[in-house]
Amino acid sequence: MTSLHEPSELAALRFPEPRAEGCPFDPPPAYRQPAGRVTLWDGTPCWVLTDYRHVRAVLSDRRFSADVRHPGFPFLSPGRRELVGEQPSFLRLDDPEHQRLRRMMTGDFLVKRIEQLRPRIQRIVDEALDAMVAKGQPADLVTDFAFPVPSLVICELLGVPYDDHEYFQELSRRLLDSTAGPAAVSEALDGLTDYMAGLAASKQGEPDGIVARLAARDDLTPEEVAANAVLLLLAGHETTANMTSLSALALLQHPDQLARLRAEPELIPGAVEELLRYLTIVHAGLPRVALEDVEFDDGLRIGAGEGVFVMLGAANRDEELFASGDQLDVGRDARRHLAFGFGVHQCLGQPLARVELQVALATLLRRLPGLRLTVPFEEVRFRSSALIYGLHELPVAW
């Protein structure tokens, strides 16, 4: 991305690009260039925007569409195009369709409602930690703690049997693998959609769970119920699980910040915001397409029908908003971060993610003061090819 207004020379830019060799917590260097255009896998040009003001402006401007059915909508790969399916979830639609579907689930994720769940989330966290400790050390913090907690929480909210978690987690991993081809993505999407459709049908008339409530509505098609239930299931466990393990690793690699949190546990809520900013696990960007010609106040022009990827990780390191943005500072006021997106499409489940992260990290630090890696940091394997950044495993002892 050579200049603000000229096409980029980075025609082979990948989504996601590898993170920096020096620090795997940092955004890919290729995403931190000035705004410019790249050529996608299918030969179409696409804008890549990296600074905070452009990213926030695109996400809050309704002239940029999130509807995957619009001509010119950018896809990361043939597999990502296949992920659209026949019935997009509300995340991939514009108003009024987006708002019609989203408002049916908004009440389940209101801050007040989620705060009422905090004691239950605390019990789930304690039970997962009890099981991990009883199992003995070393343990894998990813499979023994980070994934079970949000998986169980979202299963209870949706009314999905937790006994099926291995099945839907395996399909989720395939869907979020940026290297997966169209056939693999289609198979995984069909599997999850069929699973949710069958579950919704079986829950007709039941009182509890979001899936049962959606299935009982007469203004939703079975396809809409399944598509949006799949979205909630995916977002409800993959993102928080990866943030939990990645946050633990980041704190272990920053012992001064870890010590401060242990000494000042009241900093946990703000530290979660800082970790969301610093790590930004949606690391391949959010796609949009311009519905009309748009000119920014600095002269950047994006034409109607041109695709755009906004890079949240780069925006969250913007020095104009976050001084010393490449540093982790648990005392920072990071509330303006864009880790959950921005505008009408920002993450519906962010109140739930915040509470889960606050409880999980606070409990982990309090109960396991000797938590440490059991392998050299250089041997930790990062999920670099996944659309949601995270870890394959995190071997720890305490």
Give an overview of the whole structure.
It is a single chain. The protein starts with 35 loop residues before the first strand and ends with a strand. The chain contains 15 helices and 10 strands. With 398 residues, it is of the alpha+beta class. The chain has a single domain (29-397), classed as Orthogonal Bundle (Cytochrome p450). Helix content is 44%, strand content 8%. Helix 5 packs across helix 15 (350-367), helix 7 packs antiparallel against helix 11 and helix 11 (222-252) runs parallel beside helix 15.
The CATH superfamily turns out to be Cytochrome P450
The number of domains is 1
Q: Count the E strands.
A: 10
Assign the structural class, choosing from mainly alpha, mainly beta, alpha/beta, alpha+beta, or little secondary structure.
alpha+beta
Helix share bin = 40-55%
Give average pLDDT, whole number. 91
Radius of gyration: 21 Å
CATH fold name = Cytochrome p450
Task: Provide the CATH top-level class.
Answer: Mainly Alpha
